[in-house]
Design a protein that fits this description.
alpha+beta; Dipeptide-binding Protein, domain 1; 3 domains; twelve-stranded mixed beta sheet; 18 helices; globular
Length: 569
């Protein structure tokens, strides 16, 4: 092992020891009351139920509690329990009717008919109808809508005419009666059920009163939404917590627990909060394995499953310097990602090389991709091939014009492990002549910089996979924009004609094997172009109160049956 690899291993070993557990031993309350034999009554076990469940999280919501506008995962958590979608993703990944009683797909696969549950109500008592569904999807196709979801509805008949202002609504959305709505597509659109079926529905009688371009300004309505889900927001303290109360008229039955609290906690306090009983469940992927084991020894339960979130370093392809493929590939070769997974993630995860879920059906077979094995000499060779040489002996490479390989990498503050991985990247790149300054920023600011203002050189963040592997919204050229203030989830503005064509062809067939073949071509091209440095996927790990019942989380839907959660004492 050479000196540089030894140095990197030592760095990883040092930063892997930053988390420690603390707190008092948790006491287990008695649950049985024994009657005196003198009363000659049978011994009974009396069970009481807590009136609230506290969900711990390290990311504070922005208060954008509207499923069409929310772009942060923390806001999405609140939306998932205050709103409802037509369908929901079950634990096995399948789609099940939710707000919809049933749905039917036409023989030519171009028309979907949804029949709504007739007992669904908004949290202000108004009935949920097909008009609400039509209003929601029409909103997504409006030219003034800022949520960036046009790609989800653009295959509907007449969507482009509506977006261009030529007609008053999308022709392909038809309200048949109060509880029936049809969606007609101009062509087969494979992701339709996932993308539209799992989209939260908003209330027409509330939001139609507000011009669409003013939705973002409705602070009170966004902070205290009216949904039709199992819980209603009753108190929002920015940066601290969101208190939700059970909606007794929820169409699937009154929630079993009266209150659900989303509590913001410090990343370093997760173990202590669990031990003290201040929170009932929380993601623990940032804890050390030893801490998790000690919590398990106290009786707390651990649930682990494949995650739908990956960590990566994004590259701003709008900048001429980053259009050099050799430079982008050198970024990858210079970092030992497997060592990061081994030392920082402690093996509770895996590397990935393309934007597909490693445990999903669209991930390419082994041996079809360049895995960018750690090779600093290869990185140096690629840089020199592009004219990047340390000409002044300061350890940083520059080109003939004197432009240095010197950048700022923004890093979101919501993951300690990611922050430590970025330090490894900084050290690794320095070894090959690339200098970066790391700027750790608030998650909300990072999201705004990357999604709307496109204000970055490099950034470290996470990305979520959908239950359908369609990468259109992240990787198709039409999803990119260079206009400041206009949202885009193709953060780096990556554009490739072959990728566009294959994504479109994959979306136009329902044959999974055909889609898989097209996605393989997408994967190969993105893997070759290296417009992003894919880092790793951690396991999704949640630790919870041992008395929590009905909790059935899955990769794509942690709150699948939240109305049935209950903590027995």
């Amino acid at each position: 092992m050479n000196k540089k690899i030894i140095s990197l291993v030592l760095l990883l070993a040092m930063i892997a020891c930053v988390f420690t557990g603390c707190g008092n031993k948790q006491e287990t309350p008695a649950s049985e009351v024994n009657k005196s034999e003198e009363t000659q009554t049978e011994t009974k076990k009396e069970t009481t139920v807590k009136d609230k469940i506290v969900y711990g999280a390290v990311i504070a919501p922005r208060g954008t509690f509207n499923p069409l506008l929310a772009y942060m995962g923390s806001d999405g958590v609140i939306d998932s329990v205050t709103y409802a979608s037509l369908l929901r993703t079950a634990g096995d990944g399948s789609l099940q009717p939710y707000l919809a009683e049933s749905y039917e797909v036409s023989e030519d696969q171009k028309v979907i008919t949804f029949k709504l549950k007739e007992n669904a109500k908004w949290q202000d008592g108004e009935p949920v109808t097909a008009e609400d569904v039509a209003f929601t999807f029409n909103t997504m196709g409006h030219k003034d809508f800022t949520g960036g979801d046009f790609e989800k509805v653009e295959k509907l008949v007449g969507a482009h005419e509506y977006y261009e202002g030529k007609v008053d609504s999308i022709k392909g959305i038809q309200v048949i009666d109060d509880y029936t709505v049809t969606l007609e597509f101009s062509e087969v659109y494979a992701p339709a059920l996932n993308k539209l079926g799992t989209c939260g529905i908003v209330a027409k009688h509330i939001w139609s009163e507000i011009p669409i371009d003013k939705w973002d300004d409705q602070t009170e309505m966004l902070n205290y939404p009216i949904g039709c889900g199992p819980y209603k927001v009753v108190k929002y303290e920015p940066g601290q917590y969101v208190e939700m109360e059970a909606f007794e008229d929820f169409f699937a039955g009154a929630p079993k627990t009266k209150k659900l609290i989303y509590k913001v906690i410090n990343d370093d306090a997760i173990a202590a909060e669990l031990k003290s009983g201040n929170i009932d469940l929380v993601g623990v992927k940032n804890l050390k394995t030893s801490e998790i084991d000690s919590l398990k020894d106290l009786g707390l339960k651990l649930v682990s499953m494949p995650d739908n979130m990956y960590q990566y370093v994004g590259i701003n392809m709008r900048m001429p310097i980053f259009r050099d493929k050799n430079l982008r590939q050198a970024f990858n070769y210079a970092v030992d990602r497997e060592l990061i997974v081994e030392k920082l993630v402690e093996g509770r995860g895996a590397t990935l090389d393309v934007p597909f879920l490693p445990s999903g059906w669209a991930y390419p077979p082994e041996g079809t991709l360049n895995t960018y094995k750690y090779d600093p000499e290869k990185a140096k060779s690629l840089l020199e091939e592009s004219g990047w040489i340390d000409r002044d002996g300061d350890g940083i490479r520059e080109n003939e014009a004197g432009e240095k390989l010197q950048f700022t990498m923004k890093c979101s503050n919501d993951s300690k492990i990611r922050e430590q991985a970025v330090l490894v990247i900084q050290e690794s790149w320095k070894e090959v002549g690339i200098d970066i300054e790391v700027s750790v920023e608030e998650d909300a600011k990072m999201a705004n910089d990357c999604i709307f203002d496109h204000d970055f050189e490099l950034y470290a963040l996470n990305c979520y996979f959908g239950s359908d592997p369609d990468p259109y919204g992240w990787w198709h050229s039409d999803s990119a924009t260079d206009e400041k203030g206009v949202g885009s989830f193709n953060f780096g503005s990556y554009k490739n004609d072959k990728v566009d064509e294959c994504i479109e062809k994959a979306n136009a067939t329902l044959d999974q094997e055909e889609r898989k073949a097209y996605y393989l071509e997408v994967a190969k091209q993105i893997n070759e172009d290296a417009p992003m440095m894919f880092l790793y996927v951690q396991d999704k790990e949640v630790m919870h109160n041992p008395n929590l019942k009905g909790y059935e989380p899955s990769t794509f839907n942690e709150f699948y049956n939240v109305h049935n959660w209950v903590i027995e004492e």
